[in-house]
Amino acid sequence: MPAGRPRQFDPSVALNQAMELFWARGYEATSLQDLLGATGLSRSSLYQTFGGKHDLFAQCLETYRDMVVANMWQRLEQAPSGRAFIEDSLRRTLAEQTAPGGPRGCLVLNTANEFGHRDPLVTERVRAGVDSFRDVFAEAVRRGQADGSIRSPRDPRRLAAYIVAGMGGLRTLVKADENRDYVQDACDVLLLALDRD
Fold first, then answer.
1. pLDDT by 10s per residue, the chain, length 197
2. Helices (H), 29-119
């Protein structure tokens, strides 16, 4: 692109369009041509702006994490108790079973399943996402312990790690189209941890 020539697109819009595509299909199943079609970018614009498919994907993971975590903090601030926030988060996971287009799961956790530890940059982004989720749930546990809605005296970060791991399992069951009652039972067992010593 010649110096001084303004871009003909909004990079943040293109980034969100790419994120939606990766979220729906995963990294390997999304081709460069798919990304060009979804964003309306030329190949040269995509590479000049985002550095290629891999770098674009890493940026999408950051964008997704920031979006989800901001929403989580907002919901926590509005929740009547720490426990209510956690229960609402689990219910939202169950509701994905009937989402239009089917359940997409969580882009961060989907990526962990797709990549494992084979890509250092992606692994770092996944770890940062999981850490951010755990931070919100740890604060929810602290608030729940303070307001009496959570009776377990366990360390909030340990309980939060359990909740994040459990939600990952619930999302997998939902994506596998497991029986709703079975998934609800698993959710109920997760919540029992909030009341145990």
1. 444 444 577 899 999 999 999 999 999 999 999 999 999 999 999 999 999 999 999 999 999 999 999 999 999 999 999 999 999 999 898 888 777 877 888 999 999 999 988 999 999 999 999 999 999 999 999 999 999 999 999 999 999 999 999 999 998 888 887 788 888 898 999 999 999 87
2. 32-39, 43-50, 53-78, 82-95, 107-115
Longest Cα–Cα distance in the chain:
65
Asked if the structure places residue 46 within a domain, the reply is: no
- By the 8 A CB rule, do 35 and 56 touch? yes
Q: Is residue 136 part of a domain?
A: yes
Q: How many domains does the chain have?
A: 1
Q: Give the position of tokens 């041509």.
A: 33
Q: Which domain holds residue 97?
A: 58-195
Q: Is residue 36 part of a domain?
A: no
Question: Do you know the residue count of the chain?
Answer: 197
**Exposed/middle/buried for 191, CB within 10 Å: 0-12, 13-18, 19+?**
middle
**185 inside domain:** yes
The whole model's pTM is what? 0.89
CB–CB of 169/186 below 8 Å? yes
